[in-house]
Amino acid sequence: MIRLENMLPKAFLLGIVEVVNEVGPEKAHDWLVKIAQKIGESEGGGIEGAREGDLHYLPTSPCITDIREFIEIFGHPDEFDQIVEHSNNLKDNSTEGWKYPALTDILGILHHWYNYKRAEMMGIRLLNVGTRCPLNEKYVYNEKAMQRANMTKEDVDKVLEKGYYVYKMEKIKQE
């Protein structure tokens, strides 16, 4: 049963499905990125989570309860996969593929671009070298980010064992 006090996350996730059906996964992706960046801007500069030297990761996966409950009720929408596929295509086909997320699920788009924006406001670029899927524990890597960060899968795996959404922090050079 969906109660009023927990309706908003489910309504938002259903809204994502409807946006994909109305305008396609490309525009839905762009819409999610804009939302994440605007929320990041409103929070201001900062980096949430744990650090180990120049590595940053989230010890827990934000919003996992919401997505699990949503999938239990509505199933796993194909529209989520369409957006993830679009994001992965952007990463794979971009000369700056290192700036895109290592994506495992739809909420990773929000996590990544929110974190990316807040770090950028502090003069730090986050390279999302790897992510552990909170739904199935599968590891996903951004090979371009790993190459730029000079990291191997083994390096990333050591951090993924402790958490989710692993980033290498890089100072943004002033031009």
Explained architecture:
The chain has 175 residues and is an alpha+beta fold. It has helices at residues 7-23, 25-43, 64-74, 78-93, 107-120, 143-149, 153-160; strands at 50-52, 55-58, 124-132, 139-141, 164-171. It has one domain (4-171). It is 53% helix and 15% strand. A hairpin with a 6-residue loop joins strand 3 (124-132) and strand 4 (139-141).
Structural features:
single chain, 175 residues, alpha+beta, five-stranded antiparallel sheet, 7 helices, 5 strands, 15% strand
Topology:
Elements: H1 7-23, H2 25-43, E1 50-52, E2 55-58, H3 64-74, H4 78-93, H5 107-120, E3 124-132, E4 139-141, H6 143-149, H7 153-160, E5 164-171
Antiparallel strand pairs: 1-2, 2-5, 3-4, 3-5
Overall structural class, as computed from helix and strand content, comes to alpha+beta
Count of folded domains = 1
DSSP helical segment count: 7
The biggest beta sheet is recorded as: 5 strands, antiparallel
Indicate the overall shape. globular
Q: Report, as a whole number of angstroms, the end-to-end distance.
A: 54 Å
Note the run of SSEs as H and E: HHEEHHHEEHHE
The portion of residues forming beta strands comes to 15-25%
| Total beta-strand segments | 5
In helices, the fraction of residues equals 40-55%
Strand order, sheet with most strands:
1-2-5-3-4
Q: Over the alpha carbons, how many angstroms does the gyration radius reach?
A: 16 Å
> Could you report the average pLDDT, rounded to the nearest whole number?
94
